[in-house]
Amino acid sequence: MLKTFKKGGVHPPENKLSSGKPIEVLPPPASVFIPVAQHIGAPATPVVSRGDTVKVGQIIAKSSSFVSTNIHSSVSGKVKKVDFQADSSGYPKQGVFIDVAGDEWIDEIDRSDELKKEFELSGEEIVRKIQDAGIVGLGGATFPTHVKLVPPKGMKADVLLINGVECEPYLTSDHRLMLEKTEEILVGTQLLMKALNVEKAVIGIENNKPDAIQLLTEKSKTYQGISVVALKVKYPQGGEKQLINAVTGREVPSGGLPIAVGAVVSNVGTAFAVYEGIQKNKPLFERVVTITGKAVSSPSNLLVRVGTPTSVLIEAAGGLPENSGKVISGGPMMGRAIASLDVPVTKGTSGILLMEKEQSKRKEYIACIRCSRCVSVCPIGLEPYLLMTLSEKQIFDQSEDAKIMDCIECGSCSYTCPSNRPLLDYIRFGKGKVGQIIRSRKK
Question: How many CA atoms lie within 13 A of 209 on its CB side?
């Protein structure tokens, strides 16, 4: 029997329209806007000014604290200005505007296709190089990877889980990466194992990617301590807590981190970025992004430079369909609609989904009918109907008591609600307010 997590979950239509499309390299655009906050934690501090000339891979903003990370230029050219522009959140964020000229890379980067399997670095040296390369979690959360590799005092990991689930409908960038960069991911996994000082790593992949399961299972035989586990197709299995439960049977406690049960989770894209950062001296300044949608003429998986405007990706996939209703950064379950096609690709951009007008319309919602479907599908075991009511009425002390901060914002509750209630919208609002209260209390 295929493994999966115990609590809740749903199975929306997969719509993996681009799964058979090989990764294509998208050339650098005419100009980029590179935000200095592309990660959880403190924004990086710009170290370039207007008129400066930069190369691909050059640091343009330095991490400002331990929970922060460096930002590197994805292009070569001249800095136009350091200013603010809206990112996918809709809020203005500071970043570096660069007018592109040529494609000149820093000398340290090894641009050859040769696979480099051997390394002699210590765990501490690996962590330091990962930090210098600006590597973050590429599954969407963008947590700085070097922070994950330094567990809090008194805690130790005994297993590394590599997340190849990609359970979000439509998205296929991880799937293609597993097929096309298989051994690079395995070497990256070995590097992460060395950094964590663990002897066991498990790559979890859902059973709707049999080609990736077969390929990684075969290739991993020559990599000591690495195994592959096929998982039942169920959303949101790509969540850290759900993947840990599915693969190991362990349950991360409320308010706890994966390290509390001896596990560390990294995305397959992160493992590949670690390989490139350490074996090729290549900072994280580009990533694979899926451009897709039912009306898109050429759904694609593109290797894209950070800072590239969303409009450039859409043009590469055949242009914006006439019946488009929404452009979503991410997938349909956890992604967010963007207000402008000038929004740049960041380290956390896994996909761009173009939804048709009919598909993107919100249905009118009615009163809760107390069916409890939202409770039964919640993978954390929360009561979404209650959390929405408390958030709507701004009863935030009770929201905190009801564990609103444990919500992973997967959207399973909203997806399954027969009354079309905007459960996740209100829960996100409540989480934001409760988070503010908790932070002010700590101060």
Answer: 32
- Domain with residue 57: its CATH number is 3.10.20.600
* Whole-number Å distance between alpha carbons of 221 and 214: 11
Which pLDDT value is given to residue 141?
83
DSSP run (H or E) holding 128: helix 123-132
Whether residue 185 contacts residue 271, with contact meaning beta carbons closer than 8 Å, is answered with: yes
Residue with tokens 């452009």: 327
Q: Which domain holds residue 297?
A: 23-109+283-359
**Which pLDDT score, from 0 to 100, does residue 102 have?**
96
> Which residues of the chain fall short of a pLDDT of 70?
none
Q: At what angle do helices 268-279 and 173-180 cross, to 10 degrees?
A: 50
Tell whether 136 and 250 lie within a shared domain. yes
Lay out the sheet containing 45-46: strands in order across.
Answer: 45-46, 59-62, 71-72
What pLDDT was estimated at residue 44?
96
CATH no. for residue 271?
3.40.50.11540
pLDDT of residue 22: 98
